[in-house]
Design a protein that fits this description.
By secondary structure, the chain is of the alpha/beta class. The chain is 36% helix and 8% strand. It has helices spanning 11-22, 28-43, 73-76, 103-111, 125-132, 138-142, 184-192, 212-226, 262-271, 278-289, 296-303, 320-336, 356-359; strands at residues 66-71, 87-89, 95-97, 114-119, 197-201, 230-234, 275-276.
């Protein structure tokens, strides 16, 4: 199908996040309830002592393993063409043009492994699982309630929908049939390339009835279907309270920027080290990885738990720099879990460092 194919954390944003954590609030019970999830989000990942580490010898011409990425428009790379001339600095200070590239394209170059992009814009979690073979096709025939229309999904927003989420409460036309986002080419290629390493990001367009356990079961079914022991689950990057897939969320206040959403908590508790809280990662590291300077608006957005608009092409999709930073997050977690070796690909990035305040546990 497609052969697809850093950085000091921004001190201003790190200080902002730390400041949020130290802010006073009248709702003491809320703070107590969120303490554990805040610590998890701030730490990016919680490693268990008995984690079964596996180190590969590194990529080479003899390493024929494949990475397979399943998802919706955020995997396909919608919005990457909205950031032409997107230059980022690599480990050797050379400039790299990441324009027009999805995160799987960048990941392929970082790891040196063949990487397949099975992202289908607008697809629900159920549709993605069906295309991959984890769920039977009859699932779609029997359950059309979660199917989204072209105006409601991430992959098919027109110009009028680029600044705010679509209206989920708008009534559907009587007799309107669900619009399916099924790509036959992806289905065929997915059968040929089940992958050795699996990267999944599903659910942003619904397809799981707002029930986290349903979504977790869909993830597990896809993992089982692939037969991959090595996998990563990527968290949603919408701002809190704006996700089409999880309408139960509400926007954060200034005091709760580092907090996980309940969706992020559910996935972290289910998948542990395999889960990447991508929203928090991009808030903390995305700008610096992408060679961008934080603005006052970025600091204000970070206090609300929102990703910088400099990394976005619209209200939900990332731009080329955003996708580059996302690929770096996946790449670094894969190194942590022993899926690939650092510096084995055609491009090399430095690892984001924690600020002094973060290193001391302040943020």
């Amino acid at each position: 199908m497609r052969r697809l194919g850093v950085a000091i954390a921004a001190i201003v944003l790190a200080a902002s996040l730390a400041g949020c954590e130290q802010s006073s609030t009248s709702d003491a019970s809320q703070v107590d309830a969120d303490e554990e999830s805040t610590q998890q989000a701030e730490g990016d990942v919680s490693y268990v002592d008995d984690f079964d580490w596996c180190f590969y010898p590194g990529t080479s011409d003899d390493d024929t393993r494949e990475i397979v990425c399943w998802g919706d428009s955020m995997t396909q790379g919608v919005g990457a063409d909205d950031d032409p001339g997107a230059l980022v600095s690599l480990a050797d200070d050379e400039l790299y043009d990441t324009s027009y590239q999805s995160y799987p394209q960048v990941l392929s170059q970082l790891t040196g492994l063949d990487t397949y992009n099975f992202g289908v814009a607008g697809a629900t979690s159920e549709e993605i699982a069906v295309m991959q073979g984890a769920l039977p096709w009859a699932t779609l025939d029997n359950d059309g309630a979660d199917a989204t229309s072209d105006s409601d999904d991430k992959g098919e927003n027109d110009d009028s929908d680029t600044d705010a989420p679509a209206d989920e409460d708008a009534p559907a036309d009587e007799g309107e049939q669900p619009i399916r986002h099924i790509d036959p080419e992806v289905v065929d290629e997915g059968e040929e390339h089940t992958g050795d390493i699996l990267v999944l990001e599903i659910g942003s367009n619904g397809g799981w009835d707002g029930d986290y356990q349903v979504l977790i079961d869909q993830y597990r079914a896809m993992i089982d279907r692939s037969g991959c022991d090595d996998y990563l689950i990527l968290g949603d990057t919408d701002d809190p309270g704006t996700s089409v897939g999880d309408t139960s969320q509400v926007p954060f206040t200034d005091d709760y920027a580092p907090r996980e959403t309940s969706w992020e908590t559910a996935l972290r508790e289910a998948f542990g080290d395999h889960f990447i809280n991508m929203r928090v990662f991009l808030i903390k590291h995305g700008l610096e990885i992408s060679g961008l300077t934080p603005t006052p608006e970025d600091v204000a957005d970070a206090r609300l738990g929102c990703i910088s608009k400099q990394l976005r092409s619209d209200w939900t999709h990332l731009n080329a720099r955003g996708y580059f930073a996302k690929a770096v997050a996946v790449y670094q977690r894969g190194i942590k879990l022993g899926y690939w070796s650092p510096g084995a690909g055609s491009i090399d990035v430095p690892k984001p460092q924690r600020s002094q305040g973060q290193a001391e546990g302040q943020g």
